[in-house]
Design a protein that fits this description.
Layout (H helix, E strand, L loop, with lengths): L2 H11 L4 H8 L4 E2 H7 L4 H13 L3 E3 L15 E4 L1 H10 L2 H12 L6 H9 L1
Antiparallel strand pairs: 1-3, 2-3
Helix pairs in contact: 1-6
């Protein structure tokens, strides 16, 4: 697997709640309320993860056209994009998790991963 793909995967799955959100959406679109129940994060943290995954092209917000600046309503639903569905398939491969873990052990992770690693030493 290419190192840039592993780097991107490391960044995405390294975000708290990201894997849980992708897993919750793997079997179809969900409402914001259903995601709150499925993912053990505070509402603001969940919203941050949703925005990040949307910016990465992993999911879309399926409600009336508008902006992410508004708090999601009861009818707001989220669904995986084609890239998000590919991500689910890729993450089901154990070799991918091994590559991500080896990248972490080698210290080649960016951002929060290094901070977390330093606190464990």
């Amino acid at each position: 697997m290419a190192d840039d793909v592993v780097a991107w995967l490391s960044d995405v799955v390294g975000r708290p709640g990201a894997v849980e959100v992708v897993e919750a959406l793997a079997d179809g679109a969900k409402s914001h309320i259903a995601l709150c129940a499925a993912v053990p994060l505070a509402k603001r943290k969940l919203e941050r993860v949703l925005r990040t995954l949307a910016a990465e092209g992993v999911l879309v917000r399926c409600d009336e056209p508008g902006t992410w600046d508004l708090w999601p309503g009861r009818t707001t639903r989220y669904a995986l994009t084609a890239s998000g569905r590919e991500l689910v398939a890729v993450l089901s491969d154990l070799d991918v998790w091994v590559a991500i873990y080896e990248r972490y052990l080698d210290g080649r992770c960016d951002g929060d991963h290094r901070r977390i690693r330093r606190t464990w030493r």
